[in-house]
Amino acid sequence: MSEHGCIHLSNFKAAKGTQPYKVIYAYFVACTSTEARKRKAFSCYCYICRCLGPRLHSCLHCIFFGCFVSGHIQEHAKSKKHFLAVELTYGMVMCFQCGDYIYDRELTDIANERDAKASKALGLPISYRSWEPSANEIELLRLHPRRRRVIENSTIGLRGLINLGNTCFMNCIVQALTHTPLLRDFFLADKHQCQFRDQPGSCLVCEVSRLFQEFYSGNKAPLILHRLLHMIWTHAHHLAGYEQQDAHEFFIATLNVLHRHCKGSSAHTHSSPEHCNCIIDQIFTGGLQSDVVCQACNGVSTTIDPFWDISLDLATDIPTSSSESNDSGQKSSESSQKSNEQEPTSLIDCLTRFTRPEHLGSSAKIKCSNCQSYQESTKQLTMKKLPVVASFHLKRFKHSSRFHKISTYVAFPEHLDMTPFMSHYRNMNNGHCGNTFNLLPDNRYSLFAVINHLGTLDGGHYTAFIRQQQNHWFKCDDHLITKANIQEVLDSEGYLLFYHKQFLEYE
């Protein structure tokens, strides 16, 4: 990333001005309206391989889109002598003669001005570009030379965590949170406004902000999280004590306390009185739609509930007893049928089962608001709104006649498309929306953290795999950080899975 300018870009601006960049940035980078996103979806694909990416660039000299990783934009630059191109996710200008992305103050001001107008109009408090350095970050690199050594193989942001005695459950969650891109951007930009100024040491968000600064300071020594542990004990009493805790329970409790301690902006209004625009809800909150269909009149009762994560069953066996069957034996038959189902072998299997219609049975009749009588019904869960970070909890700890762990291997992908589990996608397949698949928003995610539980319930241990930059993986085992590869990650057992949305949209 060069911050010294480029003679080739300067010559281009002298001849053609900044209008070509303004047009590309306005129509294909900062798409803030539904129509603009549709236009981008139809237009932005590589003219050679017809793919949507990866790292799609637009030629600054002519109308041409080409992907960077496959080398098609490079081929175009070489054959046409068009050496300047705009990266369409972050708006950075690449000069193929210099072989680098170029910092240009004038173009940076254009991008920042448009982003500021869009954010102000939509009431958005933060920028949504996080996977690569933004124009503001490039300016920071220029103004602070000591911070320029964040290169491709940099390990800044990697720090081990001392185990304080059965605190591996906390260490792995902290590793996942500190490598959540938008959360990192928020805290490193000092966005938090403390609402406990008169109570020093009471705000968990301030403590997490301090931890982010420690993680990305460049210091390699392992950190001790005694202050964080004490604050969690104070605000989540059920986690207090020195015994081993569940990492998933700690994750939800931490989000809950952070959510309570955040001070969200009131500028962005919402129809729901429960809506919060704090950084936790902006990143982790999704909407789960529940449709209950009356079997008598087909009336549909719909509710939408917020969620921070999705817990997915792994076991299919359902114990039955004589008390579970009715006169017709229907409930016993349903339970027997469920117990004979094949256990899920992949995350997709789990999500498919989670979002399929479920017959509630005659023992769970509900009063239909349409026909005003108690009727049997079916219930289906789908995703109404997806969060920026989708976290999945594989329910490996099972309560039945005894408490035991399910160690079944469940395959999970590096890249996940959530479109088949969306509410509007199911409506389309039911014939309600016509053939508009290409107009759907992009619901693709990339894996960036995996938490594993090793061993048994009595002597278990938590570790984490985290993604550093684009393609570098590391295993975090308390104070020990070791290099890993994606295959090791995908071959792991998997307990908590964290996915980050690849393309972020303005609301």
TrEMBL record:
Keywords in alphabetical order: Hydrolase, Metal-binding, Nucleus, Protease, Thiol protease, Transcription, Transcription regulation, Ubl conjugation pathway, Zinc, Zinc-finger
Primary site of residence: nucleus
Pfam families: UCH, zf-UBP
GO molecular function, one term: cysteine-type deubiquitinase activity
Domain UBP-type: 4-121
Compartment(s) of residence: Nucleus
Name of this chain's protein: Ubiquitin carboxyl-terminal hydrolase
Gene source species: Gryllus longicercus
